[in-house]
Hints:
Radius of gyration: 19 Å
Strand content: 5-15%
Number of helices: 7
Mean pLDDT: 93
Helix content: 40-55%
Distance between the termini: 44 Å
Amino acid sequence: MKIVGLSGSLRSESYNTALLRAAKETVSDRIDMQIFTLHDIPLYDGDVETNQGIPWRVNELKKELINSDGLLIVTPEYNHSLPGVLKNAIDWLSRPPKDIKSVFGNRPVALIGASPSGFGTILAQEAWLPVIRTLGMKPWFGNSLHVSHADKVFDKAGKMTDSDYTLQLQQFMQGFVGFINKETAKPVREKEEMAKEQREPLHQ
């Protein structure tokens, strides 16, 4: 199984990138989880798309998503909403529109996030839901994770040191992996059922 993890922060000591690294550690023994930040992705510009095409970094990330089984979005919260740099990346990834289905369609997705505030990233995660719905993804709602007071959850090296959040993150990732397994097994079961129906004789 392969999961793409996107951090929505560019800051070198980002709590959200640290959270993404911690998420990878919980599944690294059995899951291929790739961590990506959004550096080298320019602001979306229709003229750039028309005259120069899709930026190389965007194409690289699109290929990773197409070959993945699920997407983990780790989102900061800015002004009670989603971060512009992450929304910009998703906007680029949805271009051209004909690629939306292969990049996002029916792809399992989960949201987590960290913030120094006392509310975590509740509002940012809610703000992502219309975007996820529009792109035709399959969000996992079996659990939630909003890391609050992140400055006390991670040490100076970016290591998660809070045992309660560590356990919550482990449970979250376990549930998300289970959801991905279930969703990726559906097409196989459907094909098997169709083949079985075709083999069975019709009763007049």
